[in-house]
């Protein structure tokens, strides 16, 4: 798993330096349309609005909600490399990651990824724009962008080491962007990229699920009513799995409507007590973390290739507390010991990480337009009320996503 994460860090650095070469990754499914999204490094500026400004929500330091500041004079993003696009943001959405980043979570690792040679000042990440998700319209394209053009409606989830989406315009690379599902509005579309890509990374990239091998598998989703949970329910049901969802009673109707076959109310009795009468599972997706992994792996089918994957890992916390080298060492020791411990019991222990991918969003868009995945929105806020939206997410117990409407719907 550490080698996988190292590959992700390497990919982040390459993307930031724009040195990634070659074509996009191989097709995930036969017949999936590919297009040239990325190209070699080449300094070039094509923006017609260089040195102009735009409105954005920024932070100038890490802290509580009062560090959020509306800035009318944020610099307009400028295309410097031929694989980049400028997108006018119509809608964005928030994730728990944004609340954590506001408080400084992951600052050490993310700063290293932005500035791997430590050539910038100590606080070079500020002013920092938060937000990962967007839906909007392409305004400008780099000279080597072959599959998008100005006017295209797109959606994306940007990696956390980049400037975020709570601004009027954003800069993205072509491999992060995908054509928006035709069946969704911008407000609806903005709710899906980060959570669907995170669910995809855990279920597909980490655990090897796909349309051909998922049918009939028993899957437990712990923390099923949030953004990633609702996305995971829909993706696995689209592929024919039997899904058990763990959530509170007031979210039961929602997850059943999304297709969950069985719902466990964690407030009724302990989940462990309720699982004792259940069949064992082929896969468990843990969106909660904490002490859950101390007991929940007992409900996997032993010696059958069954997997547990958690999205709550200590990597960024370790590097924040110990620095990059010691943090990675502790992380490696932690995951290594857990993998070996559970292999001895006949089950697989894995960590999952969000991975930005335009080609994956292409596939998800097809599932959306086919009616197999739909947005689940908890609340929509205007751009002027971003701090209120952060407080909403900070309270937890979400029933879907919190969306920011950057451009008022006409």
Describe the structure.
This protein is of the alpha/beta class and 410 residues long. It has 2 domains: 2-191 and 375-405, Medium-chain alcohol dehydrogenases, catalytic domain (Quinone Oxidoreductase, Chain A, domain 1, Alpha-Beta Complex), CATH 3.90.180; 195-351, Rossmann fold. It is 30% helix and 21% strand. The chain is built from 12 helices and 16 strands. The chain has helices spanning 2-17, 96-102, 107-114, 186-189, 193-206, 227-238, 252-257, 271-275, 315-322, 324-343, 358-369, 386-394; strands at 53-59, 68-75, 84-94, 128-129, 133-141, 153-157, 169-173, 177-179, 218-222, 242-247, 262-265, 283-286, 307-310, 348-351, 377-382, 401-405. Strands 3, 5, 6, 7, 8, 15 and 16 form a 7-stranded mixed sheet that branches. It is globular and about 65 Å long. It starts with a helix and ends in a 5-residue tail after the last strand. The model is unreliable at 1-34 and 39-43 (pLDDT under 50). Residues 63-404 form the Enoyl reductase (ER) domain. Pathway: Cofactor biosynthesis; ubiquinone biosynthesis. One of its GO terms (cellular component) is mitochondrial outer membrane. GO terms for molecular function: nucleotide binding; oxidoreductase activity; zinc ion binding. Keywords: Membrane, Mitochondrion, Mitochondrion outer membrane, NADP, Neurogenesis, Nucleotide-binding, Oxidoreductase, Transit peptide, Ubiquinone biosynthesis.
Which secondary structure elements does this structure contain, and how are they paired or packed?
Elements lengths: L1 H16 L35 E7 L8 E8 L8 E11 L1 H7 L4 H8 L13 E2 L3 E9 L11 E5 L11 E5 L3 E3 L6 H4 L3 H14 L11 E5 L4 H12 L3 E6 L4 H6 L4 E4 L5 H5 L7 E4 L20 E4 L4 H8 L1 H20 L4 E4 L6 H12 L7 E6 L3 H9 L6 E5 L5
Parallel strand pairs: 9-10, 9-12, 10-11, 12-13, 13-14, 15-16
Antiparallel strand pairs: 1-2, 1-4, 3-5, 3-7, 3-16, 5-6, 6-8
Helix pairs in contact: 5-6, 9-10
